[in-house]
Design brief:
Elements (H helix, E strand, L loop, with lengths): L7 E2 L7 E2 L2 H9 L19 H21 L7 H12 L1 E5 L6 E5 L7 H18 L11 H7 L1
Antiparallel strand pairs: 1-2, 3-4
């Protein structure tokens, strides 16, 4: 059976609010008779287009320059993307028969907002600490600058 999932909002002093209560009730009514478990977990939004824009237009190009100055020979941002994913965005998978541990790169498209921020900060910290390069913070006032144009 496919799990039924809904997003709810919870504010201080108020009961939680289901964002689409009619659909939720219809799907619950359609379930066959039986016992079910309802699980509540924190919802995190996927990484935003602006976060990826910062990654691809600031972090990757500046880090590529720093890496090339350190002796690497990267020719495009895609190579830099693979390099950084192998360093900071991977999970370890173990072969139970041999004990071998492989690192498999994660898909950045599945990152939630906090993972994307952590990934960019790891790149920036590495560049600062090991490559003597400064990658600037994302601009917190970008909305105000866009409105004045």
């Amino acid at each position: 059976m496919k799990p039924i999932r809904y997003i709810v909002d919870k504010e201080d002093g108020k009961p939680y609010t289901v964002l689409n209560p009619e659909l939720r009730q219809r799907e619950l009514d359609a379930l066959p008779k039986g016992r079910y478990r309802e699980t509540i977990e924190k919802f995190h939004r996927k990484a935003t287009h602006l976060q990826f824009s910062y990654l691809y237009s600031v972090c990757y190009p500046l880090s590529m320059v720093a890496l090339n100055d350190a002796g690497y020979e990267f020719v495009n941002v895609d190579q830099v993307d693979l390099f950084w994913k192998s360093m900071f965005a991977n999970k370890e998978v173990m072969n139970r028969e041999t004990g071998e541990v492989l690192k498999i790169p994660l898909s950045k498209s599945e990152f939630v907002t906090i993972q994307e921020m952590t990934y960019c900060n790891a790149i920036r910290n590495y560049c600062s600490e090991y490559l003597n390069a400064n990658i600037p913070d994302p601009d917190p006032n970008w909305k105000q600058k866009q409105q004045t144009k």
